[in-house]
Amino acid sequence: MAGWYALVVVALMLAGFALARGRAQSIAGGDYAGMHSLPSYHGLYTASLAFIPALLTFLIGSQIAGYLATHSAVSALPNDIQSDILRQGAALREVVNIVRGGPVGSASAEIQSAAASYSSTLFAAQWITLASGVFIGLAGLSWGLSRISMNFRARNSFEKMVYVLLWICATIAVLTTIGIVFSVVGETYRFFFDPAIKGKPTVGEFLFGTDWNPQAAMRADQGEINTAYGFLPLLVGTLLITVIAILVAGPLGLFSAIYLAEYASPGVRAVAKPILEILAGIPTVVLGFFAALTVAPYVRGWGEAFGLNVASESALAAGLVMGMMIIPFISSLSDDVINAVPQSLRDGAYAMGATKSETIRQVILPAALPGIVSAFMLAISRAIGETMIVVMAAGLAANLTFNPLDAVTTITVQIKTILVGDQEFDSAKTLAAFALGFVLFFVTLVLNFIALKVVQKYREQYD
Amino acid sequence: MTDITAGGVSAPLRRVEFDTPAAKARLRGRYRSEARFKSYGIIALCIAATFLIALLASIFSRGIPGFFQHYLVTEVLVDAAKIDPQGKGDAATLRAGDYTAVARAALAEAVPGVEGRQMKKELNSLLSSGAGDALREQVIANPSLVGQRIKVPLLLADEADLFLKDSGTKLLVLSETRGIATPSAKTGEITILVGANDFADDIAVVKAELKALAASIDETVALRKERGATPESLDSLVKEAVELRRRYDAAATSETLDSKTASRLVAINGGIVKIKEMSPTSVKGEVILPLKSTDDAAPGTWGIRVYETPESNRNLNDLGVTFLEELKAKGLVESQFNFAFFTRGDSREAELAGIQGALVGSILTLLVTIGLCLPIGVLAAIYLEEFAPKNWITELIEININNLAAVPSIVFGLLGLAVFLNFFGMPRSAPLVGGLVLALLVLPTIIIASRAALKSVPPSIREAALGVGASKQQAVFHHVLPLAMPGIMTGTIIGMAHALGETAPLLMIGMVAFIVDVPSTLSQSATVLPVQIFLWSDLPEPAFKMKTAAAIMVLLAVLFVMNGLAIWLRKKFERRW
Description:
Number of helices of chain B: 21
Number of strands of chain B: 11
CATH architecture of the largest domain in chain B: Orthogonal Bundle
Largest sheet of chain A: 2 strands, antiparallel
CATH architecture of the largest domain in chain A: Orthogonal Bundle
Oligomer: heterodimer
Number of helices of chain A: 16
């Protein structure tokens, strides 16, 4: 059906353009200079008058059609299924499966009759939508045609529509943020306050609990396994790995940036920059594979050589590779801010007899400090939100420990573990993942905000 | 200089001496610290480069063997009785034929004389369950092959392939001359008698192995005790060590070989016997490859083979190793480039698994992504850069875009799960939803890159267009946008490369299912290349580690090409105003 809709919409649009342009040309009769808008603008205007209403009709109509069809299928189901929301959902899935051409054989007679009423309603509603879309599109088209005249400002009208389109595109970013906020905040609210959810913690238990064990008993015979949603071990694990990563990437990234910005010859830059860019472009799943298969055994081997007890999924291995991931991040941002320090400051320091390193340490770095701080903030927020490296190289055990040689787990690992695979949407476990997502979103938001404010507040004005 | 200032300024300045030893030392110190500071930068860069090299080396060394596969290349009788017993010759019959049986028959022909159910099963397990697939395609394409003998490559199973690739076992042929040996039979359980105490030394070696094994178990026990393991959990290990010691200490004349020590086999009279029990003057064992005769073997014509890795530490048992060595000795095993890696979907069998499904899934997903985020991103950038009034709404939009660029990707996965899947009821695991989520993810990147490209077009272009009477939109769409297009394309390609490597949000929307079929529509279940890498890396079979690295190489190659394209575009169309 979608194919038919698309075909009709495109046909209306093309017809509108061709008819309107032809008509404008014949009205102008060669006197284009006397006409306010070019014939092609009349064409575009009429085409959009046909296109937009038809498209909207189809978009709304297909939703209504789906709703009506579902409604008719539900009313065709026996009463006992209708009253039970879970069985109703299962039955509807089966109905949709049959309508989409799935196997009919195993379905009961009620389901089959519901499927029949579903498909007949859907069919009728879709054809009505198509017909009304064509009608409305044609109406828009003829109205557009009727407005064509020497003085009609088709270009201005069309440009207004384009302006609206541009504005809509720009606001999609805002809509995305709203979508994120709604999806995580709504579920998080339910996680803490929805009375229908069993085994949920209070906000205090979540924030300050030291046990994390969301695995509820799967079957009755496994007995009651106590679930616990203490967030602290995850926070500590995340911070531990992040700290290791920053300890690795901070000095390395900053010194590379200083070298590249202040010392390197163009030749060295031409080699070193691409190395950092390649490092930045490596997908994190690849880094995770490297961490789990190469770095972790190495770390373990070294630890064992020194007589230390290293877990096979140690925080150190994950943190090292995470650090590797954010080196290019820190170095490119710091490189930019160091380059932005005006040359006059350097020249002043050199004139006083300072060596290059003294200039860098005492003049350039202080001047670039806000930018470097914000680079570190962004790097931290990236490390906290990174998923694949820790999923593959860090563990699942929620240990509350500061020992980098132990296995720890992180917020992102837990979100991934809970949400991958089938999940019931109304269990505390699933909602816990959204609560973790909310924490993640909130923390990164705050870090970005601080980074932005640091730059704005402490930026030295040199001009 | 000091003289002049001394005259003009009221307070006399302190004289600075530059040639005192103290000043010189200070200067040297400053230069040293300068050199030190500079070397920090070089060291940092070198460490970063080392990281990259180590990463690539680790991936490539694992991945390159993953592109090759070992085949048994031998004459295969395309037996009409197994493929087309009624002689119909139509495609459906040919497709349904039992090609596995054909392949197994060819293998049995290549290693003659293997008897017994267990042995035959071991032999057949060397072949992949898909060994007949290539043959099937060949026969369907050319039905006249039925009944003929043709030479085709038959795919080996992953354990055999892995054994041939990195040879998990060291093979040792002990060639010192021993006395005359007399086997008792040609097949089955046999005894081989030798004249002198020929096996006394071997028994000593086995005992040494037992001792070493016991010592290593002791070490493990000690280590685990240190880590706080309970004595009960270590009981079985301790008992094992005691038993090994007992065997070592016993002055027994015969020694039983088991899967914990190196395997020893006797190659005699054209056959191979696996030793089970060894005494100084005789061995008892099981025939793996039948002997040609029971004649006395002269000194120098027979010998002992040692598979040094104990059987329990290998994926391939002694039978498998022996058969493979036999095939290798006959020159029937070949390593070929594994084209099927690019033309097959996922599989539970490592040797049959390919990345085509994931590649197609990635392409479909990226098509959705680029179809959405290129127009939306460019139009948004045009609005913000060229038309947006300076007010709080614009500011809000800009802050939003900058923030979205830094939101963790897994949060976009949560958005996809909650909004697209649960609210709009879109299909799980579909490239459509994956593409939508990735489009939202890379939208900020594309908007920021497009704005930079638009900004780099000088205002004179706009002013010239406006000056000859163009409307503002005409100036932008007819003049500024075309000039900014190379920059926009570069940003888009980099954004797409980012989307191609993204894994976490796709895990959230269920693109992690095990999917064998290659997807063909946007709403079908599919997976993408990075997710496939993640899935494979999780599997325990060592052969999949190789496949994972090989898939990573493909992913990196695609990313390399995309980034190269972006750089080329930038270089070609770069314009200095």
